[in-house]
Amino acid sequence: MPSIWPIARKSLIPLLVLSAVGVGFVVASSGAATSTPSVNAPRVVPHATVKPHVTSAKSGLQVAYYETNPITVPAGEFKGASPVCPRGYEAISGFVHSNSPKVSEVESAPEFEKGKARAWSTVVNNQDSKPGQMQAGVVCAR
User: Which of 20, 61, 116, 138 makes a 20 to 30 Å CA pair with 6?
Assistant: First the structure.
């Protein structure tokens, strides 16, 4: 008798993925699963990274990377920054660098202005007993 597992597996995988996404959305939108305090992540004008621009020869999409100067994160505290994309670009992602494994990202999300993602907000937590450094970054495209 042939096994129905290959057919069932193909049918179940999309259903399981959709269920997991739905559960993640409910947990994220309920606010109950987060313990991050409200942190002011001021907008800052970042500088270009070492390799700031990449252009796709096929589509013409231009991607640029920008990051803040180092920001001190006091011991045991949260700190945030929101690097802004240059005019004509939209924020498509963000990133963070730190000088310590105890300075970790706890929040990362786009900031919208007039319906467009213009900046990327990043918040970190310093779980060390000494100050640390972080740099927030934004990936911009047009």
Answer: 20
Q: Do the Cβ atoms of 119 and 84 come closer than 8 Å?
A: yes
Task: Give the integer Cα–Cα distance in Å for 10 and 7.
Answer: 5
The pLDDT tens digits of the residues spanning 38-84 come to 556 666 666 666 566 677 777 888 899 999 999 999 999 999 999 99
Per residue in 67-126, pLDDT tens? 999 999 999 999 999 999 999 999 999 999 999 999 999 999 999 988 999 999 999 999
Is residue 51 within 8 Å of residue 65, measured between CB atoms?
Answer: yes
* Distance between CA atoms of residues 142 and 16, nearest Å: 34
Helix segments in 32-108, DSSP class H? none
CA dist 73 and 125 (Å) reads 8
CA 16 to chain centre: 25
